[in-house]
Structures are given as structure tokens and as C-alpha cells.
Amino acid sequence: MDTPLQNFLVPGPQRLAAEIVLGALLLIVASIYLRGPLGTLSRIAVFAGAMAVIIGGAAILMNNVSLAGPPNAAVRLRRFLTVNWAATSEKGDGAAACADPAELAARQPAGAAHRKRRNLKRTAARTAAEPAAAPRAGVAAGAGAGGEAQADFPELVRKSYPGIPPARLMQLAASTVSGLPGWQIINSDPKTLTIHAVYRTRLLGFDDDVRIIVTPRSEVDLCSRSRVGEPGSQSPLGIFHGDFGANIGHIKEFYLALAPAADQAYREVEIEQTAQQHGVKAPRP
User: Fold this and answer.
1) 55 and 89, same structural domain?
2) If you average pLDDT over each of 41-45, 190-194, 199-203, 243-247, which comes out highest?
3) Is 27 in the same domain as 129?
4) Residue 72 domain-assigned?
5) Which of 20, 145, 252, 280 has its CA at a distance of 20 to 30 angstroms from the CA of residue 84?
6) Domain limits at 93?
7) Exposed, middle or buried by CB within 10 Å (0-12, 13-18, 19+), for 253?
8) Residue 228 domain-assigned?
């Protein structure tokens, strides 16, 4: 069994977090007891560190993400401070790169067995209350037998909406982007079921590029990347490669906004299927 000491001795996010905390405590003690130039430098360092924590914490809160989540606070903080992109995957792997469009286009619909499991899941969803972060319509593409995805970052699990035709899902995605503040569609291609959008930050006006692809399996894949920190960036903050969780926040925001529209689409599909079974024409929404 691992002990706290063993975890500290092994290089990793937990050790880095512990070293930062210990360093901060030493600086605080030094600023209190030291006199002269060293004491002044210690107090300046403590003030600068406190301001960095305040600004960083405020940025993380504004991006609608939290340190309190899987896999743990240290890993999440390290990612927020060192990575300027985010991409969905089947298991929510925080290190997964943006998916290849050709691979996504090759994800053909599942067979009848998958549809049967989907119907069982939807029936269970009607009788059980689910948290807002896990919309009823969205099913994790990498879910296990119990329907719960084992993900590094739950926000990055690629959502699947079986039963909604990909073309209709593409329309829902486009209308969702159009209704989000700060988001703008740059171009969309109904043939490849791809949407390219830009999100502009509210305070500093930075641009983040978001790519949305609907797969033939009725999955919605997202890839979000900040322009700041990329090669060729003219921003003085280009030397800083963290996004404070902004791109994960974009993905989370989109999925939450898409959930009500997907629920409505499911109701419409059910009405259409019921009407077909009874040989009548379903009313147009």
C-alpha cells in the first residue's frame, strides 16, 4: 500500500503540489522573521504569489471548471496551468489529442444489440434522477456495463446520442453554438458534419478555436484550442501555455447547452416512430 511519504518521493503532480505548498510556507515564514533586503524580497514574493493564486483561482472559476474532480486536484491544476487545449475521447483521457476527422467519419452506427442497450438505458433514465452534468440524452461513448464511464476527466468524455440521426444532430449542434454567448460559427459543412467556431474570452478578448464533428454513430466530438501560446501568437502571454481550464470549460458548456435540445429531439423521434407504427402522419415540430 502506498504511503504519503512514498507518494511524495515519486515525481508527479502530487509531489509538485507538495513542493509548492512547502515553498510557500517557507516564504511566508521568511517574510515574517527576516529583516533587511532578504525580508523585503520574501514579502514581495509572498505578495506576488498571493496575487497569482487569486488571479488563477478567479480565472478557473470563470471558466466553469473545478479542481474538485477526477482524477485529483493536483493533476487538474497541473493541466490547467500547462495545457492550452482540450479534446473529447471515449474515456475522457486528459492527454488525448484531437481526433482525426477521417477516423471519426469511419465510426459507423452500431448494430441492433447496441440499439437494444440504448433503449434499456433510456428507459432507466426516465425513472432515475441524473445530475445536470450528465444529461439524460447523452450517453458516454466509453461507458462500462453499468453505464458509468471510467474517465480521467468526466468533462472530456465524448457524448453519444443514439437514436438521433446525425444530420439532425448536426443542426442541433449548430443552433446550440449560435445560442451561446461569446461563440461564433466560422463555417460549417453538412457533408462532413463539421462545425468550426471561435470563442472570444469576455475580459481580454482572446480567441479559442472549437471544432465540432458529428460522427455517423451520432456522437458529438469536440476539440478546443487557445490561440494564445500557439506558435506565431503575438500576445505577450504567449510564453504561458496554460488555459486555466478554459478549453475544458468550453466543452462542458457546449454539452450542457446541447442537452435540452437533444431531449426535445428524442421526444420528436419517439412521436415520429409511434406515428409510423400506427400508420398516421406525425405532426411537424
Assistant:
1) no
2) 190-194
3) no
4) no
5) 20
6) 84-277
7) buried
8) yes
Q: What is the domain count for the chain? A: 2
pTM, rounded to two decimals: 0.72
Give the span between the Cα atoms of 120 and 269, in whole angstroms: 16
Question: Which one-letter amino acid corresponds to residue 190?
Answer: P
Cβ neighbours for 206, distance < 8 A, ≥ 6 positions apart: 200, 226, 227, 228, 235
Q: Say how many Å lie between the first and final Cα of the chain, rounded.
A: 58
* pLDDT value, residue 272: 82
Q: Are residues 115 and 193 in the same domain?
A: yes
CA distance 163 to 282: 17
Between CA 170 and CA 175, with CA 172 as vertex, the angle to 5 degrees is 110
Mean pLDDT of the chain: 77
Whether residue 102 is found in the same domain as residue 206: yes
Q: pLDDT of 97-144, one tens digit each?
A: 999 999 999 988 866 445 544 554 454 444 443 433 333 445 555 444
Overall size of the chain counted in residues: 285
Q: Which of 255, 250, 258, 252 is nearest to 197 (CA)?
A: 250
Residues 119, 172: one domain?
Answer: yes
